């Protein structure tokens, strides 16, 4: 008995000191992880910061991220300047009709000022900012149909587009937007906007802005129902902000992009972006999910009184001027409205 008492007494320091040490380390660790989470908390990472910029040079094909871009009246530089059309009907082609389009990748080389378009086996290179003279020498001016409207387009030679016809399993042509402006319709029509603006081959408006926090809220709903999260790329936005409260963008009316140098750039938010089934197509595989995120969006995002049977994600904007936009810049909301009302541009 006496021996064990002595042993216990002598062993006390071996138990107390390590325990005290462990507590000190634990406290220090907790304090550190506290300050780390503070660094990523909303107060220190402003919600209106631009976190990503995306450009999709060829309508419905895979786009890419850029660190900076020139905002033009017609949209971000290079964005939707090209599209594929059916050789037979002269109608524009999108992921809606042929989901394999999303497997056509694009890349821009600033050094050579060239745009590359890739199938799995082929790469074609064309000038990214072709002059009228180059277009006259190398393409033919033709007609193209997009959303029930006829517009002019520079058509590339069939020898150049052959790999794409083979890849997409249909006879297609590649065209570059011709000189005649595609004047905005619907909510962007001159009468409503108060000035005449145009876009290249975007569906409706020059620029789409989206919020990561709204995507996060959507993804939380998807995960709760046992579905997979979706990437922001599904929605094909151009300017992506971190976002504060989800869906506050529903009421945006005027946005201002500010940078430390240069003038602020204002954009009119003309309408919500109402969605078709394109976000259900996985851009990596071209597989179309039978339900999501469509079903989830339909449950709670049919919020626009102008078109109740389509869900809203992202906001469609028309720049008031031109200028540079960079990741890290701030996007301020300078006016909001309760009057957004989608007007079908086909009418
Ligand atoms: C266009 O063709 C003309 C005549 O062949 C040639 O002189 C000119 O350099 C060409 N321009 C371009 C930009 O290809
Ligand atoms: C934009 O918003 C930030 C904070 O949200 C503010 O500090 C800044 O002054 C605003 N800039 C303009 C031009 O309104």
Automatic annotation (TrEMBL):
The keyword Membrane applies. Coiled coil: none annotated. The lineage of its organism: Eukaryota, Fungi, Dikarya, Ascomycota, Pezizomycotina. Pfam families: MOSC (PF03473), MOSC_N (PF03476). It comes from the Eukaryota. Residues 182-334 form the MOSC domain. Keywords: Membrane, Transmembrane, Transmembrane helix. The chain crosses the membrane at residues 12-30. This is MOSC domain protein. InterPro entries: MoCF_Sase_C (IPR005302), MOCOS_middle (IPR005303), Pyrv_Knase-like_insert_dom_sf (IPR011037). GO terms for molecular function: catalytic activity; molybdenum ion binding; pyridoxal phosphate binding.
């Amino acid at each position: 008995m006496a021996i064990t008492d002595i042993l216990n007494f002598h062993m006390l320091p071996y138990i107390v000191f390590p325990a005290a040490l462990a507590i000190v380390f634990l406290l220090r660790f907790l304090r550190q992880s506290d300050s780390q989470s503070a660094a990523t908390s909303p107060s220190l990472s402003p919600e209106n910061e631009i976190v990503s910029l995306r450009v999709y040079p060829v309508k419905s094909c895979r786009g890419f991220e850029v660190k900076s871009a020139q905002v033009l009246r017609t949209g971000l530089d290079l964005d939707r300047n090209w599209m594929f059309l059916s050789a037979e009907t002269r109608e524009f082609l999108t992921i809606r009709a042929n989901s394999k389009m999303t497997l056509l990748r694009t890349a821009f080389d600033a050094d050579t000022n060239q745009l590359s378009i890739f199938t799995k086996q082929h790469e074609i290179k064309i000038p990214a900012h072709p002059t009228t003279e180059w277009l006259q020498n190398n393409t033919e001016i033709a007609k193209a149909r997009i959303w029930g409207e006829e517009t002019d387009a520079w058509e590339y030679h069939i020898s150049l587009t052959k790999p794409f016809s083979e890849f997409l399993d249909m006879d297609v042509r590649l065209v570059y937007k011709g000189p005649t402006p595609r004047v905005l319709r619907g909510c962007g029509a001159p009468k409503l906007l108060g000035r005449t603006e145009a876009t290249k081959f975007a569906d409706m408006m020059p620029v789409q802005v989206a919020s990561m926090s709204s995507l996060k809220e959507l993804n939380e709903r998807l995960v709760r129902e046992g579905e997979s999260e979706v990437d922001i790329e599904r929605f094909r936005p151009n300017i992506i902000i971190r976002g504060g409260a989800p869906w506050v963008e529903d009421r945006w009316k005027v946005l201002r992009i500010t940078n430390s140098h240069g003038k602020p750039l204002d954009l009119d938010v003309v309408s919500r972006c109402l969605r078709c089934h394109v976000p259900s197509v996985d851009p990596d595989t071209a597989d179309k999910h039978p339900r999501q995120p469509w079903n989830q969006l339909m449950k709670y995002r049919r919020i626009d009184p102008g078109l109740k049977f389509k869900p809203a994600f992202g906001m469609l904007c028309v720049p008031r001027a031109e200028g540079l936009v960079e990741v890290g810049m701030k996007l301020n909301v300078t006016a909001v409205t309760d009057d957004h009302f989608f007007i079908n541009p086909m009418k």
